[in-house]
Structures are given as structure tokens and as C-alpha cells.
Specification:
- The chain is α/β, with parallel strands linked by helices and 407 residues long.
- It folds into two domains: 266 residues, Crotonobetainyl-coa:carnitine coa-transferase, domain 1 (Rossmann fold), CATH 3.40.50.10540; 88 residues, formyl-coa transferase, domain 3 (2-Layer Sandwich).
- 38% of the residues lie in helices and 13% in strands.
- It is built from 18 helices and eleven strands.
- It is elongated and about 85 Å long.
């Protein structure tokens, strides 16, 4: 699919970010056709290149973690702590439409690379700064990794088994939710800012905080607290306001049963041979099922433990009750629907190794997203960018390599 241009084919993104939130945002733009130039420090490069094992195994030294957020981009290594290196970044920013960075607040200003300084040289530039706590407020200078933000931002107070049950206590989510949602907010907001450039001819700065994004996606929980004073707690896999909506044990495994309406509950009860539950006035409405959650779930647990998983899922599917198994990743990537949707894409790195990636999930009918290039190795495109974009001569480039300004 390398030939597919994508709807953002005329967009150039200069990516000074590393780890996950920033690269997740720029990968989103790259999947849709933008040219993304990833700037890394010489030597180690992006932190996630070393976040292993497991490692790719192609001699690059890259961890598999790095692969998840760094396709569809070119890689250049510049030491912008040196004046000549910082000037190279400024020159690249002059030619870019978007710049994304996630350094601690105030760091880039020491090198003359503050977003405001860059927009002074390129007034149409959209700059996006991603930090743990934002550019303002008493915690603006603090560093923030995903697990810290999950705690401070309230997610861990909602995740885990409730007090008084086996295994009780707060848990982080199994994926870095704060980083990922911040990356998605960043990509969407960048596109909105680019629309403003199109209409008004001026760029602007985007201040994105992991904390703000984590709080925003508390969704129904923040709505309950702010409007009804309800401080929700941990419910394990149960839902605070929809019942039954959780996992249950069967005779040979576990299933998710997600009942979203009173009609679905009646269908569930009848399919299980428990018409008495459907007729019980305590359970006929969702509000009643929430009030009598423990009694109802105890009845369902007693009934479902006698069903075999495959038989149960077949019956519930037939009557239109949402249900499914709890799968590990091996089962996920062998699932017929995942295979049919062609989520897995394979692409070859410059090392010759083939790597497997999960492609962009949105399906555009006219200008599809695509995995065009594999995640690059360190400095893979340094020479080509310096020559092709900045017009440096081979002799100038050789000198910059020899002096360690680039790599």
C-alpha cells in the first residue's frame, strides 16, 4: 500500500516528541498521508527504542515497543543542544506545517526552539506541546508518565476489584490509556488548527496535558460526580449504572455479558430459562437492577456456571444479547473478524526484516489510510533530509556527521 498518498499528502509534520503520546499523534497523521520527520537525539534516540525485551531481532537494537507508534515517518538524528543542530531544526520548522514536541515545559526555549520562537519564523506553523500537566498551573513543571496520570487523574480509583473482595485495590489499565487518548486528542486538535490556517492564514499553539485528557475521558463518571455528587469507586468489571454488564464464569471459562436495555435483559433471562428473573419487579428496569445488583448477579452467577461457553454464546447471539469471550492476544489475532478486517499489516524495514503492525483502524472510502513505510532505524534518513530539504552539500553533511551534530 506504499503508493497510496492519503488525504494529508501535502502536510509536513516535524516530530520532536518521543515515547508514546506524541508519536501516537504523528503516526495518526502519517497513516493519513502526512510526511512526518522524526527528530531524535544522536545515540539512544527515542526512549522506546530501548524499552525491551522483546527486541526486533534485526540488529537495529530496537525494542518491539518502538514499532507500535513510529511507522510512516522519516528519521533524522540531530543534537539540538548545539547551536548548529538547533539551527537545523529551526530550518526544518520553517518548511513544516506542524511541529509536535513533548519536552518538559520551558526546555526548548533554552535552545531557541520554543514554539513561539518557531512560529515567529513560520507564522503558519501549528505547534503542539504535550506534557504531563500542561503549560500553566502549579504543576506545569512536573514530569508525567502514563501510570502517574492514571493515578492522579482518577482512573485508578475506578479500576480494580472493590474493597472487601479478593484482590481488592486500585489497578492501572492494561494499556497506557492517558498517553493514547492524549495522542488522539492531539491529532484531532492539530487538524482543527490546520483548518484555521486554511481559513485565517495563521498558525497557533496547542497546549495538551495528559492530566486534562485523562480527566476528560472519565466520561460518565465525571458527569455523575459534577452533577450528582456521586464519587464512584472500584467495581471490578461491573458497570456503575448498567446491570448486568460484566464478566461471568461458565463451566469452562469466562464470558462478558453486556445488557444495555430492559428488552435485552428479558431476552437474556428467557434464554437462560430464568423467566422468573424477567418477571421479578426488582429487575424489570435498569434502575431496579442497579439497586438490587447483588441479588441479581448472584442469581446469574449460579445459573451461568452450569453453561459451557460456546453453547451460551451461541444462544445469546441468537436472541440478540451482546456477549463474548475474554480473549488473549493470540486468540484476538486469530479471530475471524480481525482477520477479515485486515488489521495486521506487514512491511519490511531497511534492515531487511519484516515486521507486523496493526494498521490505522479508520476506513476511508476514497483516500484510505495506509502503512506505507516501516518504523525507521536511528538516523535512517538524516543524510537524505539534510540534502533534499535543506540543500546541504555532501561535504557539509560529512562535516556535521564528523562533528557529532547529526548522526
Amino acid at each position: 500500500m506504499a503508493h497510496i498518498a492519503g488525504p494529508l499528502q501535502d502536510l509536513t509534520v516535524l516530530d520532536l516528541s518521543r515515547v508514546l503520546a506524541g508519536p501516537w499523534a504523528t503516526q495518526f497523521l502519517g497513516d493519513l498521508g502526512a510526511r512526518v520527520i522524526k527528530v531524535e537525539r544522536p545515540g539512544a534516540g527515542d526512549d522506546t527504542r530501548g524499552w525491551g525485551p522483546p527486541f526486533v531481532g534485526d540488529g537495529s537494537g530496537d525494542a518491539t515497543y518502538y514499532l507500535c507508534a513510529n511507522r510512516n515517518r522519516e528519521a533524522i538524528a540531530i543534537d539540538f543542544g548545539r547551536p548548529e543542530g538547533a539551527e537545523l531544526v529551526r530550518r526544518l520548522a520553517e518548511r513544516a506545517d506542524v511541529l509536535v514536541e513533548n519536552f518538559r515545559t520551558g526546555t526548548l526555549s533554552r535552545y531557541g526552539l520554543d514554539p513561539a520562537q518557531l512560529r515567529a519564523r513560520n507564522p503558519r506553523l501549528v505547534t503542539c506541546s504535550i506534557t504531563g500537566f500542561g503549560q500553566t498551573g502549579p504543576d506545569a513543571g512536573r514530569a508525567g508518565y502514563d501510570v502517574l496520570i492514571q493515578g492522579v487523574g482518577g482512573l485508578m480509583s475506578l479500576t480494580g476489584r472493590p474493597d472487601g473482595t479478593p484482590g481488592a485495590g486500585p489497578l492501572k489499565a492494561g494499556i497506557p490509556v492517558a498517553d493514547l487518548v492524549t495522542g488522539l486528542y492531539a491529532a484531532g486538535t492539530i487538524l482543527a488548527a490546520l483548518w484555521h490556517v486554511r481559513s485565517a492564514g495563521e498558525g497557533q499553539h496547542i497546549d495538551l496535558a495528559l492530566l486534562d485528557c485523562q480527566v476528560a475521558v472519565l466520561a460518565n463518571h465525571w458527569a455523575s460526580y459534577l452533577n450528582a455528587g456521586v464519587v464512584p469507586g472500584r467495581l471490578g468489571n461491573a458497570h456503575p449504572t448498567v446491570v448486568p454488564y460484566r464478566d461471568f464464569q461458565t463451566a469452562d471459562g469466562d464470558v462478558i455479558v453486556a445488557v444495555g436495555s430492559d428488552l435485552q435483559f428479558r431476552r437474556l433471562a428467557e434464554a437462560l430459562g430464568r423467566g422468573d428473573l424477567a418477571a421479578d419487579p426488582r429487575f424489570t428496569t435498569n434502575a431496579g437492577r442497579c439497586r438490587h445488583r447483588e441479588e441479581l448477579e448472584a442469581q446469574l452467577e449460579g445459573t451461568l456456571k452450569d453453561w459451557r461457553t460456546a453453547e451460551l454464546l451461541e444462544v445469546l447471539d441468537r436472541v440478540g444479547v451482546p456477549a463474548g469471550p475474554i480473549q488473549d492476544l493470540s486468540a484476538v489475532f486469530h479471530h475471524p473478524q480481525v482477520i477479515a478486517r485486515a488489521l495486521v499489516q506487514r512491511v519490511q524495514r531497511v534492515t531487511g526484516a519484516e515486521v507486523a503492525l496493526v494498521g490505522h483502524p479508520a476506513r476511508l472510502s476514497r483516500t484510505p489510510a495506509a502503512v506505507r513505510t516501516a518504523p525507521p532505524v536511528r538516523g535512517e534518513h538524516t543524510r537524505a533530509i539534510l540534502e533534499g530539504d535543506l540543500g546541504l552539500s555532501p561535504a557539509e553533511i560529512d562535516r556535521l556527521f564528523a562533528e557529532g551534530v547529526v548522526a
